[in-house]
Amino acid sequence: MTRATWRTRLGFVLAAVGSAVGLGNIWRFPWLTATNGGAAFLLLYLLVIVLVGVPGLVGEMVIGRRSRRNPVGAFAELGGPRWRVLGGVALVASVVVLSFYSVVGGWILRYTLASATGAYFAAPEQYFAAIDYGVGAAGFHALFLLATVAVVYAGVDRGIELATTVMVPGIVLLFGGLAVWVATLPGSGGGYEFFLSLDVAYLRDNFFSVLVAAAGQALFTLSVGAGAMLTYASYLGEDRSLAADGTIIAALNTGIGVLAGLVIFPLLFSLGVSPGEGGPGALFVGLAGAFGTLPYSRVVGVVFFGVVLLAALSSAISIMEVLVAYLVDEHALSRPRATAGVGGLFLVTGTAAALSPSLFGLLADTLANLVLTAGLLGFLLFDGWVLRRAALDEYETGAGRLARLTGRPWYYAVAVVIPLFLAFTFLTGLGAVAGVPVSAPAALALAVVGVGGAIVLLRSDTDSTA
Ligand code: PFF
User: Fold this and answer.
1) Which residues in 1-75 belong to E strands, given as ranges?
2) Which of 34, 155, 226, 266 could form a disulfide with 188 if both were Cys (CB 3.0 to 4.6 A apart)?
3) Is residue 139 part of a domain?
């Protein structure tokens, strides 16, 4: 059986942008920005996207395109059977992410419908508290999952490519329209100021905690570390510059994220709601509650949650595809069977997260950051010390002159510098979860020892097998 490929390069780029743009941009990003000092967070986040996110994204795609396989098959093919375990990390990360993601997707679906009837307008807080977890939440999660299954079931080009080619431009248009409309509301100015003016003292006093939050968010928003971008790149039929594609994907994702911020913060300020209130529920309580007081509130609510729904769906698809690709490539299952099996798995894990707030919090808050960071760390060390020259060759394949010039700096970044950074944020994050705060110098020292040790091992290993 021939392996599926994207019909066009644009189709691939839009599918990848669809994966990147999602709840991370609209739900997680404003929430983290609000609790990490506004523009201070935005600044570090943008820096991490450029210096870590883009090279990391390309490092993940290099593995997919070179092997034309799912994560497990890719590492086995390129590095030998024992590297399958690294693909296993990607599968686990996919399960962690989609298990809570589809619960939030269910909330969004419910709010899209409830906007049409105005169900939450009168008492937004009570409404959210009544629907966030429980049987109803599990039901809507299942519906969201069903929509995801339907697209993945239809296949790479006829399902994913077709759906995201319509969805992504739709997201840009609708958010653009909302941003313009929000600017006309009285009192919205405070939102721009909060979002765009930098508090240097805050940044100085909280540098490391803001940095760690920004790093986790940067990986999450670019969909790296779980093998989604690896899998999407494995369907590339033609050799074009991965560096150019990665830059375009990250730029569009960041642009849409900032656009979402330009809708959400001014809207909150115009209604006198503080953006820090409500944590993960902020979008649903603060913002949704505010809709009720606006003119055309039902239309605004349906449009807003409708766009978020599209964005969430185009991301959920990419995570599900990781596991489906694995079953199709490695276990020779047909796509319909593989999709049904994976759908069944998430029905169970997602239902558990929809019934248990503590499980949900664990997955969404801490585990997601940790598994994505660990995944990307492994991918990049693999590029740098197992693939080595082949990674650089793949980077340069199809690349134009500019991209070729960046080849060597990219290689050293993914082989050494970025792994150090990821190990640092991983250890800091792990310390925070375990309740043993790790100071920045200690985390850095441990990162140097850990990454240095891994490099020494990998070098002697590949030298002896070469
Ligand atoms: N990038 C998606 C978002 O910002 O909502 C989330 C995501 C998708 C994370 C795919 C990881 C992944 F593999």
Assistant:
1) none
2) 266
3) yes
DSSP string, 99-131: HHHHHHHHHHHHHHHHHHHTTTTS-HHHHHHHH
Across 84-101, b (16+ Cβ under 10 Å) vs e yields bebbebbbebbbbbbbbb
Q: Which residue has the tokens 């248009």?
A: 173
Q: Which of 19, 91, 104 to mutate to test the pocket of ligand 1 (most atoms within 8 A of CB)?
A: 19
Cβ atoms within 10 Å of 68's Cβ, excluding its own = 17
Alpha carbons 80 and 69: distance in angstroms, whole number: 14
CATH code: domain of residue 188: 1.20.1740.10
Say how many domains are in the chain: 1
Tell me the per-residue pLDDT of 286-326, one tens digit each, with 9 for 90 and over: 778 778 888 889 998 999 999 999 999 999 999 999 999 99
Q: Is residue 220 part of a domain?
A: yes
Could you report the per-residue pLDDT of 9-28, keeping only the tens digit for each? 999 999 999 999 999 988 88
Residue 280 falls inside a structural domain = yes
Predicted TM-score (pTM) of this structure? 0.96
Q: Show the domain range for 225.
A: 9-360
The two three-digit tokens of residue 120, written as one number:
């939450």
Between CA 90 and CA 60 the distance in angstroms is: 11
Judge whether 416 lies within some domain. Answer: no
